[in-house]
Protein 1
Amino acid sequence: MEEVRVEYSKRHLEAAKECLASSRISFDREEMDFSLNRSYYAILQALRAVTLLDRFDSNRHKAVISYFNRYYVGTNIFPSGTSRLIDSAFKLKSCADYEDFYLADRKDAQQQITDAEGIISMIEPYLAKRWAEITKEEALPMSAIFTRTSTRQFEPRPVESKYIIKILRAAMAAPSAVNQQPWEFYVTEDPDIISRLSQVSPYSRPAANAPVVIVPCWHTDNLNAPQMVQIDMALATQNILLEAEELGLGAVMLGIAPIEELMNAVAEILKLPENFKAFTIIPVGWPVNKRPQEDRYEPSRIHTL
Ligand SMILES: Cc1cc2nc3c(=O)[nH]c(=O)nc-3n(C[C@H](O)[C@H](O)[C@H](O)COP(=O)(O)O)c2cc1C
């Protein structure tokens, strides 16, 4: 993925230079409209070479420009005057392309070639540095966030308690509203309890073949932010899933709360006191097989203002 990201960025920089070359040719042929169009694209391709490194790309020119302005000019990576040059190129290109009787000015076309040259030579050393950094990062191991997948098939061998303790230490490291830490963790290796937990819902069956099951619960005593309690529990649950992955174990979250009927069924199996509520069921074990995580990164879900 990283390799592809750098590769695409390099291609866009190359495309920027090609557009610039063709802008110069059109200028020499006195084709000012076309020259303006090409030098604008030279600028746009150079911007895309940068934004792609953040995995941001769009068919909408305005979206690329506003992303670049916000994250690269607004943060002083590139000088503030850059936005003005981009804006002017966008306007001139729009006139040259869409206004029927627009006569492109020779001076404007010459100026825009100079601007595109300036932007490309400003961006190029920055890109070279980022490409090197990204290629170096690629050599580092992936974090559990990018390798975790839900595991529903487990090997029939136990998980030593030292692993469970690490997992629960990770759970309790989670953030919680006003630091209320509402969690209580039930851990069981009892085949009868595990079998009953696996029958709580049609979706809880993956628990059946797990050597150990963790049931994160919360208490209802003296909570300062009771309305936030399930958010706290979800964050602790994510830490459990990530730490299990980090240790080479597999796990899956089986949803229980906020469905009262399921919460009551789990409470009955675990004999929870009245003030304890079941949040989820998490089977943990050594995975039978590991699959790669699907890449769910979707730039269109990022809305830049
Ligand atoms: C709130 C919640 C409830 C879930 N409940 C179940 C469940 O009851 N049974 C199950 O097999 N997986 C359950 N999952 C796991 C999802 O199916 C799984 O995370 C999703 O398909 C994405 O796959 P991945 O975890 O491998 O990335 C649940 C996940 C969440 C976040």
Note: The mean pLDDT is 94.
Protein 2
Amino acid sequence: MNQVEKIRIQIQTLKKLPTLSHSAERILRLTNSELTHLDELINIIENDPPILSKVLSLANIICLGYSGPITNLKDALFKIGFNNLKNVALSISIFSLFKVSGQREKTYKRLFKHSVATGIISKYIAEEFLDIRDESSFTAGILHDLGLFALHHLYYEAFLKIENLVITGKNITEAENEVIDLDHSIIGKWLAEWWGLPEEIGEVILYHHEDPGKLDNKYRRNIALIHLANYVAEKIGYGIYDGGRESVFYESGVYSLLTLPEVGELVNHIKSEIPLEEINIL
Ligand SMILES: [Fe+2]
Ligand SMILES: [Fe+2]
């Protein structure tokens, strides 16, 4: 059995990979039909108080402060819509599976903030510049580093070794391969498959560090968007590593697929428009 196979089995069984919480399972089973599932979604969130408060905080950031604070689920539904509310609740329930305390909390917080920032930036770019109003941009953005959460949760020592290599200038994928013989994109894709997340989310997770211009994949525009949002999040201070970059940015690949303002302009615009400093650790 090779190292990759060993880790896959460890992640799947030996290391007690968190199974989805009851709330997350139920949310995932809801279809995108507001008509049939509205009451059920409200019921799941209301009966899970830790999720409820986090969902409301995140809904407020998504709304970008355009229209008064969201203080209850009815407001949230009205302002961000059923599908966004559903995806926010799902992401929050997934992240809470990986929550840690003590020494590891600092790195967990960085991962959390980076993920939320990437989700919000993806959604913002999609709606503001690409006229895409499809909630998968937000979900794929917020969950793109799912594999890093698992790595952090199950192999903290390896996570730190990788972090040190990245801080000294190594590319994350190379650093991960050096330490564990595989990378967080693959781990994230495994998780997405085991949990039955939508295919598009799994594909974005798997390819988010590759040059989107060279991909032959039906989701490559969304992959390009998340690749870009990941970079922008880092540029405005929401990176995972203190002093090291998570990714190589394939600018021409992104711009061959998406028509957008020049990247420096985009970074400045997002920095001034999105109140990311309001992301608390939920
Ligand atoms: Fe990543
Ligand atoms: Fe990332």
Note: Residues 144-145, 184, 208-209, 246 surround fe (ii) ion (ligand 1) (CB under 6 Å).
